[in-house]
Structures are given as C-alpha cells and as structure tokens.
Amino acid sequence: MDHSCQAGCDTDEAPQADAVRTQRRQALHEHAVPAEAEQGLTSAAPIPSTLHRKNCAMEIQCECGKFRAELRSFPANTPGRLVCYCDDCQMYLRHLGRADLLDVNGGTEVVPAYPSDVKILQGLDHLKCTRLTANGTFRYSTSCCNTPIVNARPGESWAGFLRGVYTARDAYTLDQTLGAVRSRIMGRYAKGTPPAGTPQTFNLRAMITVLPFLLKGKLLRKSKGSPFFAADGITPVVAPHVLTDAERQAARG
C-alpha cells in the first residue's frame, strides 16, 4: 500500500494505541539515525523529485484514530522531516507523559505543513491546548489518547505536526514518503552526543532547509484559515492551559 497519499475514504480501523506506541518506539530508537545518513543529517538535500510531482491529500490521525485531519498538497508543501532538541520541546512531551516520543538524544521530530492546507475531518472536540508560558507556542494534543498533534502560533504560516500523527498507521511511512531527516537544530540541549553536524542552535543549512517554505507561506498567506484558531486568526479553538511554575519544574529533565 502507498502510504504517501492516504485519502479520507480509507476505512481501515485505527490501530490500538499501545500497539502503535510500541511500533513507533522501535522506529524512533532503531531508525531515527539511519547509518547512511550519519554524516549528512543537517544537509538540505531536496526531497526526491518524484514526490514533488504528487499533489496528494495526506491523512493524519492520533494514535486511537478519534482525531483525524487531512493535509492538502502533501508532500509538495512541506520542507520535510526536521528534529528539534530544544528544552521547550522536551519539557512539553515530559509534561504530557510522552517522553517515549523523544528520540535517543531527546529530539522531537516534526514535519511542518501550512495551516491553510489543514482540514480537520473529525475529533475537534478531543483537542486540548497547552502553553509552557503565557506567551508561548500553542501546543495541541488529544484528550482521547494523549497524542501530541501540532505546535502553532497565530499569524504564522507554520504548523509543526509531530511525527506520530503521520506514523499512527505505519511507523515507517515517513521513511517511505520523505526519506531521511533533513535538518536538526538546538543541539546544545541534546541528551548525550547528537548526530554529527547538529548545530548548537541554528546554522545556515537549517535556514536553507526551511526558508523557501517560510517565504512561500508568507507570500501566499498560508497562515489564513488555520483550523487551530478562530476566524479572527488569533483566538485558539481550545482554551489553553498555561503551565504553572511547579508544572514546568516537574517537567524539566
């Protein structure tokens, strides 16, 4: 089955959350750093050209399948697989009790999309929102199975979907669709030694990887119509919970 384009008409039942977590954990720890990519993990190598010719609708979901969404123009409208080792991303997953989704060095893998390309198919009522601070990023997860979904900010043409929503049905679908991780950032916060070439913060290669995506999003106003914010483009569709000082402290590694 070609997992690069999963239409909304797919009627297969969602896998059980525990089984999915086991499969994903194996993929994260066994395949997060493919041997052939060890020396080029921060390279801005293009996504294979055959994928750019596809104009597909990619269906994503939480682990139990109660939340489902569709990404239009995928994978054309994504910069590919990115990994962030920052302390905020690590804190968030630990707060959710989902440290199992961090890779062996504490990295969070995201595959961004444009907010205007996102259509929620079902499960809006299962979304919850968390902010690490009063001015922090809006981080959405599900109440049904505690799956982190996306990180977003109002007015920005960037919706950072976490790896798990792409791999809920098949742990290897990103390898098949997008290939290797294209960029890694914020290595100063990594646990142990991150893959070779990971910068302490950002580097030129990381910027080159995402800059075309950001410029296209700004020019085409891809922040408009985000399903994660109300019609005013500012108010989140779910009232956020802002972590207390005690909760932040408890979530620190």
Any chance you could write out the topology, listing elements then pairs?
Layout: H1 17-31, H2 49-52, E1 56-61, E2 68-74, E3 82-84, H3 87-96, E4 108-113, E5 118-122, E6 127-131, E7 138-142, E8 148-152, E9 159-162, H4 163-166, H5 173-178, E10 183-185, H6 204-219, E11 240-242, H7 245-251
Parallel strand pairs: 3-10, 6-11
Antiparallel strand pairs: 1-2, 2-5, 3-4, 4-9, 6-7, 7-8, 8-9
Helix pairs in contact: 3-7
Structure description:
This protein is of the alpha+beta class. Helices cover 25% and strands 21% of the residues. The protein is built from seven helices and eleven strands. It has helices at 17-31, 49-52, 87-96, 163-166, 173-178, 204-219, 245-251; strands spanning 56-61, 68-74, 82-84, 108-113, 118-122, 127-131, 138-142, 148-152, 159-162, 183-185, 240-242. The strands form two sheets. An eight-stranded mixed beta sheet has the order 10-3-4-9-8-7-6-11. The chain has a three-stranded antiparallel beta sheet with strand order 1-2-5. Strand 1 and strand 2 (68-74) form a beta hairpin. The radius of gyration is 17 Å and the shape is globular. The model is unreliable at 1-16 and 29-53 (pLDDT under 50).
Work out the helix count. Answer: 7
- Helix proportion range: 10-25%
Number of strands: 11
Distance N terminus to C terminus?
Answer: 40 Å
| Basic shape | globular
Task: Please state the structural category.
Answer: alpha+beta
Radius of gyration: 17 Å
Please give the order of strands in the largest beta sheet: 10-3-4-9-8-7-6-11
Q: Low-confidence stretches at least 5 residues in length (pLDDT < 50)?
A: 1-16, 29-53
Mean pLDDT: 85
Strand-and-helix sequence, N→C? HHEEEHEEEEEEHHEHEH
Largest sheet: 8 strands, mixed
Q: Percent of residues in beta strands? A: 15-25%
